[in-house]
Write a structure and sequence with these properties.
Aminoglycoside 3'-phosphotransferase, Chain: A, domain 2, nine-stranded antiparallel beta sheet, 15 strands, 17% strand, globular
Length: 386
């Protein structure tokens, strides 16, 4: 998780201390977070300036080993030196504290605090409990919990029959608990390991796409998507006045024209955020694990595949990757029912992505258009579909 990403995410919610307080109520009712301060006899929380996670000063060896394994082989050359330096500190508790800066102070120590780590996300926090091998997922303060509710319902329905979807236990206040697995995101693995896990991930994706699978006439599909598009666009304009969407409207019309001659559009339950960061590889089992189902919804099956192939959740440089996708014959996983035309694939992805982008930008709790979404809008306006 890059430092600038953390800053953008903190801009989502000015009441971050209230967020942490809400999380801690699940762990220790009555615990109060004070403003940045230090008091003798209190439990202090720190923000690691390189790893971008909230941890306690008495972080347990198991937690340090988890971070070490998670970040040691991250294939990002720009951060490699900084991360190796930080990871050297993780072997010593004194040096570890030196590498941190105080962030929050608790007036009441919480149980097993030394075994906890809080990792911030877009709209949620994950609290890793290394003592009990569990993760507590809590929505951020003032944010809509609809996505988390959606994930809880989906995972409780599907995890018994689909082993790549981990089970979760619903908790009060729109939180849930899940097992802490011996697994790490694919984007933390080297390229060889990523390619090895990719085939397994697409096999699991095929099984997911068998849920609520439907073959829709293109006219019916486009009519339904147009209604979603107009509703999402109206909300976007209401929340962020002054946005110029003319170019995106033109591209949407172009995508419709490309798809209209297509007789059938294959739809199913899609993950919605299908990217290496949301696919976990396990050391003890060849099968992958899918996480983060907040954006799961019925869509064109091609959406998950293109989101992965275009690395669409890394918006900078998206236009160039789209050009490469259309210029070079793409890889088509045999187990996925996909149109063989790159132009049709791209048109389907654009319609679904444009709707997702509008919807995700207008969720409760987002006060300004995040930097990543701003870049995404600019990139999408420069693509060519026809």
């Amino acid at each position: 998780m890059k430092i600038h990403e953390l800053k953008v995410r903190e801009n989502y919610d000015n009441a971050l201390t209230s967020t942490l307080d809400a999380i801690l109520q699940h762990l220790a009712p009555g615990a109060v977070i004070l403003d940045q301060c230090a008091k003798e006899g209190t439990q202090q929380w720190y923000l690691h300036t390189l790893l971008s996670v909230y941890v306690t000063q008495g972080f347990c060896p198991k937690g340090r080993q988890f971070l070490h394994t998670l970040y040691a082989n991250t294939p990002h050359s720009r951060r490699a030196i900084l991360q190796k330096t930080a990871l050297a500190f993780l072997t010593s508790s004194l040096a570890f504290r030196t590498a941190l800066r105080p962030a929050f102070c608790l007036s009441t120590p919480i149980p097993n605090a030394a075994h906890l780590m809080i990792m911030p996300g877009n709209q949620r926090f994950r609290t890793f409990d290394f003592l009990h091998d569990t993760i507590l997922v809590t929505p951020k303060h003032n944010f809509s919990a609809q996505g988390i509710q959606n994930e809880i319902q989906l995972r409780q329905r599907l995890s018994p029959s689909l082993p790549f979807i981990p089970p979760c236990q619903s908790l009060p206040n729109d939180a849930f608990q899940e097992p802490l697995l011996n697994a790490f995101p694919l984007n933390r693995l080297d390229k060889t390991a990523q390619h090895k896990a990719e085939a397994n991930a697409f096999q699991c994706l095929q099984k997911l796409h068998q849920i609520d699978n439907a073959s829709l006439p293109s006219a019916d599909y486009l009519s339904h998507k147009r209604a979603q598009f107009e509703a999402a666009k109206t909300l976007l304009r209401q929340k962020f006045g002054g946005l110029c969407l003319r170019r995106l409207d033109t591209l949407y019309d172009c995508a419709e024209k490309i798809l209209l001659p297509t007789q059938i559009i294959q739809t199913a339950l899609t993950h919605g955020d299908f990217q290496p960061g949301n696919i976990l590889a396990r050391n003890d089992n060849p099968g992958p694990i899918f996480i983060d189902f907040e954006d799961a919804a019925p869509r064109a099956c091609a959406y998950d595949y293109l989101t992965w192939q275009l690395r669409a959740r890394t918006p900078r440089g998206l236009v160039q990757r789209i050009q490469n996708f259309t210029a070079i014959p793409p890889y088509f996983p045999q187990n996925l029912a996909l149109p063989q035309s790159p132009k049709i694939l791209l048109a389907l992805w654009f319609i679904e992505e444009w709707i997702w982008l509008c919807q995700s930008s207008t969720r409760d709790g987002i006060q300004e258009l995040p930097l990543g979404l701003q870049i995404q809008f600019k990139e999408l306006q420069n693509i060519t579909l026809g």
